[in-house]
Amino acid sequence: MDPTMPAGAPTPTPPRGLRSLQARMLAGLTEAVLVTGPVHPGGEEIVHAANPAAARLLPGLVVGTVVADAGYDALTDALVRARPGFEAEIDGRVLAARAVRLDEDGAVVDALTCWYLRDVTEERRGSASLVRAQARAQFLAEAGRALHGVLHLDRTLRTAVSLAAGVLAPTVLVMLADGSDTVRWARADGGESRPHTGELTRTALRSAPRLHEALVGRAPVDPWVTVELAELPVWNERPAGEVVVVPVPGALVQGVLVLVGPAADADALPLGEEYAVRVGTALSAAALYREQAHLGHVLQASLEPPPLPSDTAGGLLVGSAYRPARESLRVGGDFYEVLPRTDAGRTPFLLGDVCGKGIEAAVLSGRVRQSLHALRLVEQDPATLLRLLNVALLDAADLDAPGTPGAAVAMPRFATMVLGDAAGLPDGGSRLRLATGGHPPPYVLRADGRVEEVDVAGSLVGALRDAEVGAAEVVLAPGDTCLLYSDGVTEARGGPTGRDFYGEERLEAALAGCVGAPPQVICERVLQLLGGWLGGRDHDDVALLALQAPTGRRA
């Protein structure tokens, strides 16, 4: 209102030229502008003004049109509820509207409302695409973490379908070929807590040749694979809805990812393909771990100390204990063996220690044992056998010398060893022939409690061509025990200071406290005392072998 006008005077109508200027200004706006209001107080809302931008967005609203009759429900609802704006999809476009009540000097002018509208379709699509991309990246990241480190083929397979069910598709199936005669499969149905698993024989896949070719990577997936899949016994009921098959690539294994009834989202297939790559990587890692674990188990079993014979046929009782430096490996550089009684009536035995620790030392100990087995075919005398072994180790070292064609990685081949054999005596005792090379001399625990050290010594095996071999004979009366041990026993550091050697005196005292005990108990007792001395500290490999002449006369 103009303050100079008298009270109650009618509002002047803008000159025609001014109205034309306002119309041109409104038409020049790029933002859509729409003015609505009743024809009279309480009457129906009509369109009072609309610029060209508004006419393009809402072509049904022309000046004079009743808003409710135009079919734009979002605008009608906003007017009825006096909302300050709205956002809705209209004719395939997303529009955002903001309402401003028109007034003049604080007084509402005939209840008119000006609507400012914007087409935000692309913004919303971009936002939705960003949200989908973020959700996709989050799913793949979480799936990668969940699959990483499982390293078990069947568990990885179950995890793969469980993660994807309800995300990629309501039902997810993964079939896996790992080079064996069977094809593993796992299926997860959305809403079920546990996946279903099973195996198919290669014979069962004869009715699905295209699927078989896709599984082994010989041919890409073609549309007929979905038909073959429907006939396989991997479903509770025949799959209904769209079926999408995605190859699962892998270095060691190959398979297919089957999505049943996938969402109509355009990103579903690309997401499935990216997920299949992660599944293939995880399954290949699990297959590789399985192969390495099997190989490690086979190697470890071949390197572990062999079980002692339950009956030496000569009446000799035996016991042993073993504690590798790296206990997680269960193998090390110490080794021992007691072989069955020979045709000559002797029971061969040995205990040795190669240089080093861990798997490298265990491999060398295995070579030493195999060399001895071969040499025993031509020689049984312990001292002569040890000399032959010394030459064999030196010859093998020459073959592995740097620069030798086909040479393996050079490793030290030094070893210390006590080997021998035992023959029964008429009184029930045993006569031991011993040969040593660089090894601590054995102890003899007599039945009356005396502990004696066998006077025998020799030089390292595999170090010098003219190595000195020590030889001795020991007679065990009934109840006597000969203990062979590695230097990991006497050189174990521990005690109150943590730096003192266990030493020969403590070993002798431990033996003296085992009078009358069976050989296995003697070994375990010494190992127990040694463990207390170590107090959990690091130690070298420890091996113990006890040979005992039984009490009582043989039949």
Brief rundown of the structure:
The chain is of the alpha+beta class and 555 residues long. The protein has 13 helices and 22 strands.
Describe this protein with a few key phrases.
555 residues; five-stranded antiparallel beta sheet; disordered N terminus; alpha+beta
Task: Give the overall shape, derived from the CA principal axes.
Answer: elongated
> What is Rg?
45 Å
Order of neighbouring strands in the sheet with most strands: 2-1-5-4-3
Q: What is the residue-mean pLDDT, rounded to a whole number? A: 82
Please give the largest β-sheet: 5 strands, antiparallel
Please mark out the parts with pLDDT under 50 across 5 or more consecutive residues, or reply none: 1-14, 405-410
If helices are DSSP runs of H or I spanning 4 or more residues, what is the number of helices?
A: 13
- The total count of strands amounts to 22
Helix/strand/pairing category: alpha+beta
Strand content: 25-35%
The helix fraction, in percent, is 25-40%
Distance between the termini: 136 Å
